[in-house]
Specification:
17 strands, nine-stranded antiparallel beta sheet, alpha+beta, 4 helices
Length: 287
């Protein structure tokens, strides 16, 4: 047997061993830390990788007659088929909404029960594992668009059971030192302009002007997500998300206005344009 064939066999066996250890670790992590794969499909995919690479390593390292080759190939096909079927069955129960951030550092993950529409948002650990973080407020009937506004802000737009459009925002960063909670609404006070869009935030609420049309939202209809974004709603339906841009910065110890951009994003099931706006000055409150 050629040396390179044997080396390839050893390499594929090591790959098998790595994935096998990963599967064992996933069971330990789930038992001790109540964490699981960030996407349920990974468990079955890794099983298929183990079976496939183990079979390849056997073929490369051991000389087999046709009878054993046929037997091992059949076992591999059967085991892969079983995992494909189990993954399909699991997918009929749970829909995984999983997306990697543009810079590859964060994972947005929601697991939705197909029968009821109830969904849970997961925070990832080491990208592969995740723990339930919070319940999505409205049951999901139809998944629309998932868009990363920045490398640390992801917005899922969906339709709920009442056929209203909603937005859920996953945030993974901070625009200060990360040691304290702050309100986005307090730090976007003022007038913001970007193209034909304008946002005015004062003590009364937020007014959005686009293409000559004004739309006012009082603070009772503003929901904050993390410390990076807010969602503006009307009649129990999401209308806009306003997020802090990656270059957004403010200092609580000075009266100076914030620097950087905010991002305006319309609630649409299909992809909408993310509009960057810059600070243009103070906004007067209504008397």
């Amino acid at each position: 047997m050629k040396k390179w064939v044997k080396r390839m066999g050893i390499l594929t066996f090591l790959v098998t061993l790595v994935f096998f250890c990963l599967q064992v670790c996933s069971l330990i992590v789930q038992y001790i830390y109540q964490a699981e794969y960030i996407d349920d499909r990974l468990f079955y995919l890794f099983n298929m990788v183990i079976v496939t690479f183990l079979g390849i390593s056997i073929f490369l390292m051991i000389s087999l007659n046709k009878k054993f080759i046929t037997l091992i190939t059949s076992i591999i096909v059967i085991l892969i088929s079983i995992n494909v079927y189990l993954m399909y069955e699991r997918n009929q129960e749970i829909k995984n909404i999983t997306n990697l951030s543009p810079n590859g550092k964060e994972v947005f993950a929601i697991k939705k029960k197909r029968e009821t529409g109830e969904a849970t948002y997961y925070r990832s650990y080491f990208k592969l594992f995740g723990r339930p973080h919070q319940e999505v407020p409205d049951a999901i009937d139809r998944v629309g668009n998932l868009k990363w506004l920045t490398d640390d802000i992801a917005v899922l737009t969906y339709m709920d059971k009442n056929q209203d459009i909603q937005q859920f925002v996953g945030t993974y960063g901070d625009r200060q030192d990360g040691t304290s909670y702050y309100y986005v609404s307090s730090h976007i006070r003022g007038k913001w302009q970007g193209g034909n869009s304008q946002v005015t935030a004062n003590s009364n609420g937020i007014t959005i002007m686009q293409q000559g049309n004004d739309h006012f939202f009082d603070w009772d209809h503003v929901q904050q997500f993390g410390t990076l974004a807010i969602v503006l709603s009307e009649n129990d339906q999401a209308e806009w998300t306003i997020a802090l841009g990656e270059d957004f910065s403010f200092d609580d110890n000075t009266p100076e206005p914030p620097t950087g951009e905010i991002i305006l994003y319309k609630a649409k099931l299909k992809d909408a344009e993310a509009i960057a706006l810059e600070y243009k000055g103070e906004a007067q409150s209504l008397q």
